Amino acid sequence: MAMGKILSSGPILRFLLYLVALVSLPADAAVKRYQFDVQVKNVSRLCHAKPIVTVNGMFPGPTIYARDGDRVVINVTNYAQYNMSIHWHGLKQFRNGWADGPAYITQCPIQNGHSYTYDFNVTGQRGTLWWHAHIFWLRATVYGAIVIMPKQGTPFPFPQPYRETDIVLGEWWNNDVEEVVKQGNKLGLPPNTSDAHTINGKPGPLFPCSEKHTFAMEVEQGKTYLLRIINAALNDELFFAVAGHNMTVVEIDAVYTKPFTTQAILIAPGQTTNVLVQANQAPGRYFMAARPFMDAPLTVDNKTATAILQYKGIPNTVLPILPKLPLPNDTAFALSYNAKLRSLNSPLYPANVPLKVDRRLFYTIGLGINPCPTCLNGTRLSASLNNITFVMPHIGLLQAHYFNIKGVYTADFPDRPPQPFNYTGAPLTANLGTTLGTRLSKIAFNSTVELVLQDTNLLTVESHPFHLHGYNFFVVGTGIGNFDPAKDPAKFNLVDPPERNTVGVPTGGWTAIRFRADNPGVWFMHCHLELHTGWGLKTAFVVENGKGPDQSILPPPKDLPPC
């Protein structure tokens, strides 16, 4: 009765109708605002307590929710003792490199006590991405998910799940990560590997003191769940599986795929994978598990992180079942899994693969040894592309490009290695010195680029996940051994290749990618193994402005951090 009275009064009814209209406005127009306070917090894992850098005291950090077409405004205030910058991994940042986040590439870092607002549009993208610190090794604890929903009224191109859950895979060190890295650098050697892997910041009950640090998700019999899986680990490619349940892969790196069913997935640092899981097994408790893939003779943290998928009504006393993960060195699984990834390539979600190539690049990936008088053996390990170990500048490369500041970088990165050799033959252990330099490659606006990334046996072969900022690219080909420019292009998939922002170059093999350089700016390209990035396995593309009004870099924001 009272409600009837309220609704019959004119102004209030009009106001309620106005509210309803607001809610039903097209969601493309929304602005999503977030406040990120970078702060140190004491956290305990594996019987060890330590201060870690977090966003808003959360580990992992908060999830960013947006919709295709939204503007996202994130004010980052730095209360930690370290300089900070945050990268929104996989967002294209069209003409807006100022919001991309890698320190000394598109901005100088945010200093203690200062703020910077990352202001960007989400255009033509939907799916799972993620954000992380992009300076030093701080992304060990400073990371979180980005969930971009399709435009209002646009369904998923797969069965609508009942619920969805973020599954963020990470690594944990008992000691201060920055100190661990400093120690390694002092010796000229790799730092100690992590002490645990984590799922949503928790290692799971196979680790000491971790019963209470176990992520669990409840499911109902007969329902379908979407898992948004992110590999936020620093140095490990990971297998992931759910005991007793198949997974259907429907998206990688926020691009829809042709669905396929698998018992396990492989996911490299920087990558995301969305899978559907049907709760169609006998009600019980089932482990979800993640552990590394490594098919080279190198040391990794080979421990298994676990979380629990628990059917509703099942008591916690029931012991969970462990999944059968591929063996840590199962190259055959890795290659066959990646071969199944295909773009959806439907009328709504076409794969616009560049068929004509304007610029062909061939980059060799190598490890090396350079002199270091203060290091343990008088040498330090390094890494290079085309034998060039990248030296970080002291001001942002994007500023140097935009304001034409001389002496910061040279735009003479070579299109191919200085001299060809048998890249994947017997291990090469002599003449391992590299050239140091801040050398970038200049790319004409809107030109099409084909880049072949070739692993080498300089010291050792190894799998390398490469991430390109500012773009997605098509993975048109991959193979083991040396790339053969005469024969291999005939086998390229130019119809429905996977489209992504981070791709694994197989151990002792090569990967070919194509993209159209339609996003002007300075865009970082680097190995997403933090160890190798720190050793210099990185470069950047300077994509020139086009002639049209909306084909040049936007002016920098007023609060861009000073250098």
Describe the protein's topology:
Elements: H1 2-8, H2 10-23, E1 31-45, E2 48-55, E3 64-67, E4 71-78, E5 86-89, E6 115-121, E7 127-133, E8 143-149, E9 163-172, H3 177-187, E10 196-199, E11 216-219, E12 224-231, E13 237-242, E14 247-252, E15 255-262, E16 264-267, E17 272-278, E18 285-293, E19 305-311, H4 331-339, E20 359-371, E21 379-385, E22 388-390, H5 397-402, E23 435-437, E24 441-443, E25 448-455, E26 464-468, E27 473-480, E28 499-500, E29 502-505, E30 509-516, E31 521-527, H6 530-535, E32 538-543
Parallel strand pairs: 1-4, 3-8, 9-12, 11-19, 20-25, 22-23, 24-32
Antiparallel strand pairs: 1-2, 4-6, 5-7, 7-8, 9-10, 12-17, 13-16, 13-18, 14-15, 14-17, 18-19, 20-21, 25-30, 26-29, 26-31, 27-28, 27-30, 31-32
Keyword list:
563 residues; Immunoglobulin-like; 3 domains; six-stranded mixed beta sheet; 6 helices; 32 strands; disordered N terminus; EC 1.10.3.2; secreted
Helicity range of the residues? under 10%
Radius of gyration: 24 Å
Mean pLDDT: 93
Terminal Cα span:
65 Å
Largest sheet: 6 strands, mixed
Poorly predicted regions are 1-27
Give the tally of β-strands.
32
Q: How many separate domains make up the residues?
A: 3
Number of helices in the DSSP assignment:
6
CATH architecture identity of the largest domain: Sandwich
What is CATH's topology name of the largest domain? Answer: Immunoglobulin-like
Structural class: mainly beta
Strand order of the largest sheet: 10-9-12-17-14-15
Family: Belongs to the multicopper oxidase family.
Domain Plastocyanin-like: 38-152, 167-313, 412-546
GO molecular function: copper ion binding; hydroquinone:oxygen oxidoreductase activity
Protein name: Laccase
